[in-house]
Design brief:
mainly alpha
Length: about 190
């Protein structure tokens, strides 16, 4: 985990030179693509994520975010590291992590922090002028599932019971009109 935090810190502040150095060390006889290695580590951890490896998964996500942010070629407007990650299984991994309701051995607050980091990484992957990231997101992400997760998180934060648990009537419940408004808002977020 400490190594991931050091790699992340090296790229803080959109340090594009360091981002490329972590991907390829041209001055060395042997080059190691550390960005792909971190990505592969996350892919492996995700399938078995629990309280014992949560911190490593979170550190991978935060590091991948720093590797990606600001990595735009000014001449072409293309995002080099984002392209590398988009060509991997990362989007599917992020989709599964976003939609996980809980992680064994991890408190809800820490799960919420992980979702925040996931959102930052998804936004970082969208940087640049290319539309390829958006197209891949539309093809690979379960946007309705993500909208449901966002809606339930919002309702929990507002102290409103989930749709299935709510009843019409006294305080703490929601009316059919409120349900329809929330559903419309969730659907509008996808447009």
């Amino acid at each position: 985990q400490l190594v991931l935090e050091v790699l992340q810190a090296l790229c803080e502040g959109h340090n594009v030179r360091m981002q490329y150095l972590l991907r390829e060390q041209t001055a060395n006889r042997i080059s190691v693509d550390l960005i792909s290695e971190v990505n592969e580590l996350l892919i492996v951890i995700e399938s078995e994520i629990d309280g014992t490896n949560y911190e490593q998964a979170h550190a991978c996500i935060d590091a991948l975010t720093e590797f990606t942010q600001g990595n735009i070629d000014p001449a072409t407007g293309q995002a080099g590291i984002s392209q590398l990650l988009l060509d991997s299984k990362l989007i599917e991994v992020l989709d599964r992590l976003v939609q996980r309701r809980s992680i064994a051995g991890v408190l809800d607050g820490r799960s919420a922090a992980l979702r925040t980091s996931l959102a930052k990484l998804l936004m970082a992957l969208l940087e640049g002028t290319e539309r390829e990231a958006e197209q891949r997101f539309l093809l690979r992400l379960d946007l309705m599932g993500i909208a449901r997760v966002c809606g339930s998180i919002c309702m929990e934060a507002c102290g409103v019971k989930a749709f299935s648990d709510a009843t019409d009537g006294p305080a703490g419940s929601i009316s059919d009109a409120s349900k329809a408004t929330a559903a419309a808002a969730a659907g509008g977020a996808l447009a």
